[in-house]
């Protein structure tokens, strides 16, 4: 994808399993990479293991003012941001009967408020320049629901509602906004699940396996490319057939 060379991408939560693969895939296409982090020690160790040189920026993406500061730091170091991948997220699972207000607010803040906070820093500038890509990483559970995840499912479904509305506002400005909804992916977090539980999950996936982070990254890279310029407001399921909509 030579058309992406020297463009700048901000990937929130880029040091995780899916985030790392997205960073690497875009870096391979010549994109300059910035990623947010919360834990400095882990982020620095991650950066040393990468085959490219990411810009690490401390940021609580659930905090609007911190995102304002983050934008200033990224653009002072790398220039204007062309591609935003909203990948940061957390889980605080509990059945609705047992969920607390704190767990609800933490997940909505980190997974959904963050999308507004980050996009609000960059999308207007993209529109003025006439080119931009926003890719929101949601979840299969935002499409089908999941027991014990009212907070997470609401946030991830809300991400795509945000996608569809913003896509309509900026389509004529050369900016696309899309959602990717991964299923169960073989990240360290999923692989740490007890093997018998993991096998039960795999049994529900028609493809008969977990997805690979690189498969999600390839889809993100395509959506960031010029070839995807006529695709906007869409939600791409990558879940091995676990949920078909």
Enter the CATH topology name. Answer: Rossmann fold
Superfamily at the CATH H level?
Answer: NAD(P)-binding Rossmann-like Domain
CATH first level: Alpha Beta
Helix segment tally? 9
Extended strand count: 7
The end-to-end distance, rounded to whole angstroms, is 30 Å
Taken from the alpha-carbon principal axes, the silhouette is globular
- Helix fraction by DSSP (H/I, runs of at least 4): 40-55%
Runs in which pLDDT lies below 50 for 5 or more consecutive residues are: none
Overall radius of gyration: 17 Å
Largest sheet: 7 strands, parallel
- Main β-sheet, spatial strand arrangement: 3-2-1-4-5-6-7
The helix/strand class is alpha/beta
CATH A-level architecture: 3-Layer(aba) Sandwich
What is the string of helix and strand elements? EHEHEHEHEHHEHHHE
Query: Hey, roughly how much beta strand do the residues contain?
Result: 5-15%
What is the average per-residue confidence, as pLDDT, rounded to a whole number?
A: 96
Query: How many distinct domains?
Result: 1
Quick structural gist:
This protein is α/β, with parallel strands linked by helices and 245 residues long. Helix content is 47%, strand content 15%.
């Amino acid at each position: 994808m030579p058309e992406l060379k020297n463009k700048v991408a901000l990937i929130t939560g880029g040091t995780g399993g899916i985030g790392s693969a997205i960073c690497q895939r875009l870096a391979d296409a010549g994109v300059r990479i910035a990623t947010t982090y919360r834990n400095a020690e882990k982020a620095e160790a991650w950066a040393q293991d990468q085959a490219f040189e990411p810009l690490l920026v401390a940021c609580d993406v659930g905090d609007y003012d911190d995102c304002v500061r983050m934008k200033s730091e990224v653009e002072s170091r790398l220039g204007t941001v062309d591609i935003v991948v909203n990948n940061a997220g957390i889980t605080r699972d509990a059945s609705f009967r047992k969920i607390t207000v704190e767990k609800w607010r933490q997940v909505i803040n980190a997974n959904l408020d963050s999308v507004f906070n980050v996009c609000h820093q960059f999308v207007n500038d993209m529109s003025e320049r006439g080119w931009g890509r926003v890719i929101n990483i949601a979840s299969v559970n935002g499409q089908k629901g999941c027991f014990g995840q009212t907070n997470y499912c609401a946030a991830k479904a809300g991400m795509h509602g945000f996608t569809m509305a913003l896509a309509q506002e900026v389509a004529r400005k050369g900016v696309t906004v899309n959602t990717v909804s991964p299923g169960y992916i073989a990240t360290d977090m999923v692989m740490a699940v007890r093997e018998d539980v993991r096998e039960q999950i795999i049994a529900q996936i028609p493809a008969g396996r977990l997805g690979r982070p690189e498969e999600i990254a390839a889809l993100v890279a395509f959506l960031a490319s010029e070839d995807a310029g006529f695709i906007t407001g869409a939600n791409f399921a990558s879940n091995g057939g676990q949920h078909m909509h």
